[in-house]
Here is the input.
Amino acid sequence: MSYKIKIFIAEDENIIAKDISRTLERLGYEVLGTVRSGSEVIEKARELKPDLVLMDIVLEGEMSGIEAAEIIMTSLSIPVIYLTALADNETLQRAKVTEPFGYVIKPFDERALHSSIEMAIYKHKIDQQLKERTRELEEEKDKSNVLLHNIFPSEIVKELKETGSIKPKEFPMVTLLFTDFQGFTEIASDMHPQELVSELNDIFNNFDSIINKYGLEKLKTMGDSYMVAGGLPRETDDHASAVVFAALDMMDYLSERNKISQYNWQMRAGIHSGNVIAGVVGKKKYTYDVWGNTVNIASIMERNSSPGMVCITSATYDLINGCFDCSFRGSIDIMGNGKVDMYFVSRKELDALKAFDEKN
Here is the structure.
């Protein structure tokens, strides 16, 4: 059995309403009823949900057909065809503001009425499909934006949208942090894969919150290693302090977590300050990354650190001196750099933290 289009009629003249009803039924439509006022047609349209409303512009009561049509089309998304004897230009122009799906002038022609209804139903169907497609596209756009911001810093996303590409940029002074877990291979070998991923995910999510607190940028995770940058892509003059604060907060977090966790995670942290080149690499899987001697030295600091300690170079020490308690760790020969002095950061000075918070 084929579907019958359901039509509701708003007409203040009973005789005309009956004539329209008979015509519609003869044309194969289903008439759900008729009313005489604007408030009634809105109520019935909400209750019966017709496929279309035939609306006289002049109705009983204070509400006109034009006002009722606007409410029905916008709030109920039901197409409306005006059925009116008022054919003067002023009335038609006023009616057009509501963007109806058609006009039929009384006395109506049966074929014109039939054509107007079929066109209105078709147009409404297309409009609904376009709205649904637009909604889907907006949802996909929102998902893409979220994904982009998860992959890239906000400044990089902005540049990518504005220019369609990312230019490599040299930063004369940034601070990099590398972290790594002591004895990770041994701990991981005794864990179920799902449990291991869950543990790392929980820890790294908390690390993410810490670096966000200090306005830093997570560059990547590599297995159990976590890499952070301060001073890029937005250049700052307090990047060294921010990175050291974050590293110490990470240590404090792990210390508290180990008190209640089944596993005892012991982390090493290494920090160095210097120049880097930053940019986006890849064709299918993009990565915002940094290159240069600074990266190598920061990684070496992590490897020469001790569990629960933050090891920094003299370059970083010079930038944070007076803000933290530091102890000399010793020197190490790094190819191409000669001897590099190292320091352990033992704790953060409360006055320095207060000053940092007030500034940021």
Summary: Residues 110-151 form the longest helix (42 residues).
